[in-house]
Amino acid sequence: MTTLSTKVIPYTNEPFTNFALEDNMKAMQAAIAKVKGELGLEYPLYIGTEKIMTEAKITSINPGNVDEVIGYVSKADQALAEKAMNVALETFESWKKVPARERAEYLFKAAALMRDRKHEFSALMILESGKNYVEADVDTAEAIDFIEFYAREMIRLSGINETQPLVRIPGENNQISYIPLGVGVVIPPWNFPLAICVGMTVSAVVSGNTVLLKPASTTPVIAHKFVALMEEVGLPAGVINFIPGSGAEVGDYLTTHPKTRFISFTGSKEIGLRINRLAADVAPGQIWIKRVIAEMGGKDGIVVDETADLDAAAAAIVASAFGFQGQKCSAGSRAIIVESVYDEVVEKVVAYTNRLQSGLPELNFAAGPVIDKASYERILDYIEVGKSEGTLLVGGGKAEGNGYYIQPTVFGDVSGKARLMQEEIFGPVLAIAKAVDWQEAIAMYNDTEFGLTGSYFSTDEDRIAEALETVHCGNLYINRKCTGALVGVHPFGGFNMSGTDSKAGGYDYLMLLTQAKLTSRKV
Asked: Which one of 295, 306, 362, 424 is the catalytic residue?
């Protein structure tokens, strides 16, 4: 493990587990069995040094087996949120003075511990969020990546005067430093219940801020497991305050609180816009403009022209559309194909989709449940809309199982203006549209209020050059799927209604959580 007394080793991404190896499969199965032995426990709030059990609880269930309770998580109200705010404010006064390298050391310890318990974290996600083995493993690996990357980034920023000194003039000593903001509200999503929760939280903490962590109500147990790990590595009490609760009650209260300095949010467009609107109003006693860091989803697409490797394109379309049941903000829920190869690509997409089998995530089926009843009903409603907007090619209804299972569904011949092509469904539904040529295909891709991820499949270098310039999204991939961003490799964030283009996992992300202070001294 890296320590303060040793040189920080270069950052590398956490390797993924190869589940083609029998030993790795057995290790994951053992981890699932261990986690199953701990189901149904009650979990407290963390407010400073106190662990508070409340009468009101959030009941977390297994979306793949709705009779199975993952845990009962204590639920904060406004009074407890206010208490947590006061603790976070008090803790900030000491935490902001802790040197950056010392703050980073807590993260290095946390990454090492999470790495040692990798399958245990993944197993809990498999049961609580409905991810299969690969999707859960990738989520845990990304969480480790965020911890390691942001620790190094804070060390780099703290030494910016040595590595990137300001222009010197005679008679003055000028330096810039990146100091913390204050207390932040962290509101992560349920679809990456470990990786994004961890990334949003540790980036704020290592920057010297204290946080109020309000996890998604469908995945609070995995968030608790992370908070407990940070306590285990010795992070001072009050730096992370764990306060699950209602968005309408606790979320709005903290967003409008005069002492809230920033809000980090990942979720739907509608809630992101609401947070942005509420945060823009200056409350009595507020002496700053609140920062909002928002990632709000997308309507991502893959464009395929007639020069492309069609097998690779079809495989990428299916992987992007149906990985974790399409419940990713980066999911490729649209495919736009040039008409001369349309039928061939559609045939391949249908064949790949038909190979996906639905079933329990703990048994590692390719297609699992969607997250909850509300999502289940909304997605099924969209499928009914799709039956009037296009040609149903695959799926089209419920799948078997004691959970929220929906068949991977593909619609063809969908108009670019159809709801299926314009609205974020966040489920296993793919809409395919036909374009006259590659230029119209790009124009159809750009015809959306979102702009998060996109892919362009082509072997024509001139067309690729045009796509690189004109496809309007935060993360554009050429000849690969539009999901699977790696920390430090693919800084992640989108344009337009996809959010503030925060570029999580990138070299400028911590600047959103700090403020630059210039000091100039005459010598």
From this structure: 295
Region 237-248 average pLDDT: 97
Q: How confident is the model at residue 6 (pLDDT cuts 50, 70, 90)?
A: low
The DSSP code for 218 is T
What is the percent of the chain where pLDDT is above 70?
A: 99
Amino acid identity of 401?
G
Identify the burial level of 10 via C-beta atoms within 10 angstroms of its C-beta, where 0-12 means exposed, 13-18 middle and 19 or more buried: exposed
- Within 10 angstroms of residue 372's Cβ, the number of other Cβ atoms is 18
- Catalytic-residue membership of 197: no
What is the rounded end-to-end Cα distance, in angstroms, of the chain?
42
224, two tokens: 């608790």
Catalytic pick among 68, 105, 197, 329: 329
Length of the chain: 523
Edge-to-edge strands of the sheet including 65-74? Answer: 41-43, 65-74, 57-62
Catalytic (active site) residue 329? yes
119: nearest Cα among 199, 209, 225: 225
pLDDT band at 7 (very low <50, low <70, confident <90, very high): confident
Q: Strand pairing partners for 430?
A: 410
Instruction: Quote the CA–CA distance of 242 and 245 in Å, as a whole number.
Output: 10
* CA atoms of 416 and 434, how far apart (whole Å): 9
Instruction: Spell out a b/e string for 260-284, using b for 16 or more CB atoms within 10 Å of the CB, else e.
Output: bbbbbbbbebebbebbbebbeeeee
Pairing type for strands 57-62 and 65-74 reads antiparallel
Bridge partners, 391 (sequence order) = 412
Q: Which two tokens stand for residue 152?
A: 């190094």
- pLDDT score at 5: 43
- Bridge partner residues of 175 (DSSP): 519
Q: Could you tell me the pTM of the whole model?
A: 0.97
- What whole-number distance in Å separates Cα of residue 236 and Cα of residue 230? 9
pLDDT, one tens digit per residue, over 43-92 is 999 999 999 999 999 999 999 999 999 999 999 999 999 999 999 999 99
Residue-wise pLDDT tens digits, 411-423:
999 999 999 999 9
| CA–CA separation, 164 and 415 (whole Å) | 51
